[in-house]
Write a structure and sequence with these properties.
Elements lengths: L1 E3 L13 E2 L17 E4 L21 E3 L1 E2 L6 E4 L5 E6 L2 E2 L3 E8 L8 E8 L12 E5 L4 E11 L2 E12 L7 E2 L2 E4 L3 E3 L1 E2 L8 E7 L6 E3 L7 E3 L2 E2 L3 E11 L2 E12 L17 E2 L7 H8 L25 H5 L2 E3 L2 H13 L5 H5 L5 E4 L7 E3 L4 E4 L8 H5 L21 E5 L2 E2 L14 H22 L13 H10 L4 H8 L5 H12 L5 H5 L2 H9 L12 H18 L2 E7 L6 E6 L8 H11 L5 H6 L5 E2 L47 E3 L2
Parallel strand pairs: 5-18, 8-13, 15-23, 25-26, 26-28
Antiparallel strand pairs: 1-6, 2-21, 3-34, 4-19, 6-7, 7-9, 9-11, 10-12, 12-13, 14-17, 16-20, 18-22, 22-23, 24-25, 27-28, 29-30, 29-31, 31-32, 32-33
Amino acid sequence: MNTLFNKTFIGQSILNTITNKSYQSRTKYFAITNLVIAAILTGCGGSSSDSSSADSGTPDNSLPINTCEASSELTLVTTSSDLSFNVEQTYTAGQSATILASVVNTDSAGLTYQWQQTSGPALSLVSENSPVLSFIIPESGEYSFSVNVSGNQTDLTESVSITANASINQLNINSDHQVVEGNGVSLRVARINDLIVDEIEWCYFSNQAVELDLTNPERPLFTAPNVNSDSVIGLKATGQFAGETLSDEVFVLVTNESTISSPYFDQPVARTYSYKDSSKYAANASNCVYSNQLNQTCNIADLPLVGQVANSENVQSVMDRVVVSHDWMGENFETFLTQADPNSDFIKLLQSVTAVVISYDVRPSFYWVATGAIYLDPEYLWFTPEQRDTINEAPDYRSDFGNDLQFIMPWRYVKNNDYAYSRIDRAVRQTRSLADITPNLASLLYHELAHANDFFPRSIHNTLTGPTLIDDFYRRTDDNALVSDQLKNIDPLTSSEMYGLAGVSFQGETANSTQKAYLPNDVTSFFLTDHANDFYAYSSTREDAAMLFEESFMSHRYQIHRDVAVTDPTELIVDWGQRGRIGSPELLERGAFVIDQIMPEEDGKTLLNNLPEPINMTAGEDWYDNIGISPSSQSLSKVSSLSTNDNAKERRPVQIGREHRDMPIPQR
């Protein structure tokens, strides 16, 4: 065996030349610089409920780090074929570990990897379709793996074995992985017995200087540099714990990719693939909805809406359109659709999309009419800590919108006087069940799919003539035929003050002096003289319709009710607040219209009339004290197995707006 590190990944002796790239300190978003933007589709903002409050700001301190004084190297293991492996010099029980596979003189782009464990104590493999196999070793012993690498006239299968020693005291960094050049990278130092490691310092031991954003030293962020060929970057963390100096190393494979040519995705996106490789849409799905080589939107004939294909109202037809960066994302989504959608709401609503993209670099979630697809943040889908390790942690870049205002309008979903959803800090390694993820995922899907069905409800699928969805979108908007267009014509929101404040809070507009002077009681008067169910409804007419639909169905299907309030931004003292506002009589006509158009199987007025009457919060008390306002003689029942907090005043970070992204609409 030969030692190797940061030489050309395929085992050559020539060091890589890596071109520096400017480092981003905020969540990557698609800057559609080459398109003339005609309109903004959706403007959803906010943070996932599982986000840590310590990570909620926009980091801006990427700085160079030092070269490590001492470090390990990967070791090259050759085989009888052109397929070789890079393994760590030492493997230890309880640690994150990695094995890298490569083909001599070949980058990994265009190749398909399929790993299997062939012997040893069972492992949780979550990157089995990547050139980087990452896993956590449960116990000492012998472990063996095989990998098949195919594509580009290559079809090779080889095996490799490792020996794991007994556990020792050391840090553990999660986790080794592959990333495309220019994409975001996040790592995390695991806590020891739930305790924070002190004085964490980072260094690099590759041939490439690395700048890290250390807003949170436990969770460094950086942007993968441009590379001339697949290249490994090594990082080392050292920290103090219980009087000892501990360390660990992590390996990130930065892959060389084709030059970006897409005006739609003009920033690097992750490698993705069709979850069902047997699907007739396997080739088109990823290429048409998440590719840096998408130069023009695909025709409907190449990737129609799910519902435009006969006999498609079933899980299999939807899964044929799922595009993922990791298999576990598709598996968990399929589990949700199979076991947690008893009324087939989501199967019906998914008829109006071309694809479902679930990728580690999607944050926040969104729907985009340009591709007809929805894009889901996998933070909503993970079951195990190992799955969560694969998700990029870069925070939402809009976290600071609206900081100049003297009010906020927080929201939460509640059931039986308690939060309806679990929240697990990223530093906590804990599993989740299907019941745990259902409330958040259901609300997200009701919202995103309301957008898709606003644009292309099932009732008009047979009238779409193309050749692209954009063409049909413009024909429908010209006729004011979108559901949200009709809602605006029938019963519009009218508060200019609320529209202006929404622009500041959700679109990043600069607050003027009048807006900065508004107090919570001013905002309460603006809001209550109109008939929106949530502040976010004022971010656009599209969001108005989506918010009505989302809250209606969360209450109807899950008996989960939405709280909304007007408070000050620091003490969170409630000026006005309400639970279940969607049940207000003044919202009946608006809500019923949206439901009838998007989900005609339900009668909108009947559904809304059967919802509980709204419950007012107690003004003058804080947001948290107002969680226990529903009358109940029963003990609090928990929606998820993780909602174990018996104190109804749990002080979670507040949520404002909705976790989604603006996406531009190309000019016709």
